[in-house]
Design goal:
34% strand; seven-stranded antiparallel sheet; 2 domains; Jelly Rolls
Length: 367
């Protein structure tokens, strides 16, 4: 009996459920603080799959290594006529055209695009069944493909392969192809029409009115945002070309903000503090970024990930080459539900030189 009592005394304190929750939060914060901020393009292998030829930068397999997990990012490069036909149940992906020209047939609707355009697959009740076609076979046709898993998870996102890429020589896979009737019957249930003219009589009717408005907006909005239609603005951070922004009401989806950031040779962006989670793909040019004061050098094909921290993060980009630098940027659009400050503050600490010159803003003190 005495020995059993001694053993009990030797045991450490037992963790209750709250202790586990605290520990989970600490471990997540440590993972983000220690996670990778820069992914070198040269270290990401090109792979031929049944879907096409491409690189996988960020997905479930490496989230545990990254400073901002949750993104599904890949690059495609096709010289064949078409990629494999597939479906996106739930939609919500965006595709920025890096080079070439072609079109996508989505649910029998053709959408033409070329270098510099952005294609958006909206969230719809049914599948987005499509394939991408290269109009210049033999010449590269590349896309920067972006998805954000927290948004995809809540709409039961799933990809189903329908046909293989012409360059795929491997075996089939029934689990990948899935039967065409894999959607449950409940997916096709439709209720009676509800019109809500004027002021809604109930808060529930207000939701139905919002649903109707959203369906109408999707039907008339742009699924392809063309580079030539989007003006370049000189703002406090630099030269931005916005493709998806809350104020661009004719764009089909606003769940992921997207813009292209150009930095002239020898220049720099503004210095900004925000809640991280933002990604930057280096389209062209050479330079470096300072993230929380630490320098990260980059070249075309690299991916910069801004960490998610309790105090936010600071970022500034520098063009160290003789040619313009171009960054394709994306971040989740949490602003309607979590606010612009995102619990850490959205602050401009320094303006870019071009904005200072145009507005006469005072220059920052020498560092």
């Amino acid at each position: 009996m005495q020995r059993e009592v001694e053993r009990l005394k030797e045991r450490g304190p037992q963790l209750d459920i709250n202790d586990y929750l605290y520990k989970f939060g600490i471990e997540r914060a440590k993972q983000r603080a220690q996670g990778r901020v820069l992914i070198r393009g040269e270290e990401v292998p090109w792979e031929q799959s049944r879907h096409g030829y491409g690189k996988q930068y960020m997905n479930h397999t490496n989230w545990h290594e990254l400073a901002a997990p949750g993104w599904k990012i890949s690059i495609t490069n096709q010289q064949v006529i078409r990629r494999g036909r597939h479906t996106h149940k739930g939609g919500g992906r965006i595709l920025y055209v890096l080079e070439g020209r072609g079109y996508t047939v989505n649910n029998e609707v053709r959408m033409d695009w070329q270098k510099g355009d952005l294609e958006i697959l909206p969230v719809t009740p049914f599948e987005n069944s499509h394939e991408h076609v290269n109009l210049d076979p033999g010449n590269p046709c590349g896309m920067f493909v972006i998805g954000y898993w927290p948004f995809m998870e809540v709409v039961a996102y799933e990809t189903r392969q329908e046909t293989d890429s012409p360059d795929w020589k491997g075996p089939g896979n029934d689990e990948v192809y899935r039967p065409k009737d894999f959607l449950p019957e409940a997916a096709y249930l439709r209720g009676y029409d509800i019109e809500v003219p004027g002021r809604p009589a109930t808060l529930l009717d207000s939701l139905y009115r919002t649903r109707n408005q959203q369906r109408e907006r999707i039907a008339r909005s742009r699924w392809v945002v063309r580079e030539q239609d989007q003006p370049v603005e000189c703002n406090r951070m630099g030269f931005y070309r916005w493709y998806v922004h809350p104020d661009l009401e004719d764009v089909v989806m606003h769940h992921i903000l997207f813009w292209v950031h150009d930095i002239p040779p020898g220049s720099r962006s503004g210095l900004q503090k925000h809640q991280g989670g933002r990604i930057h793909y280096v389209v062209e040019g050479e330079g470096y970024s300072t993230v929380d004061g630490k320098r990260y050098d980059w070249v075309p094909g690299d991916m910069l990930i801004l960490p998610i921290n309790s105090g936010g993060c600071t970022v500034q980009h520098f063009n160290a080459g003789s040619r313009p630098a171009r960054l394709a940027c994306a971040e989740p659009n949490w602003t309607p539900i979590l606010g612009v400050d995102m619990a850490c503050g959205f602050e401009q600490l320094e303006d870019c030189p071009e904005y200072q010159a145009r507005t006469g803003a005072p220059l920052p003190p020498e560092k």
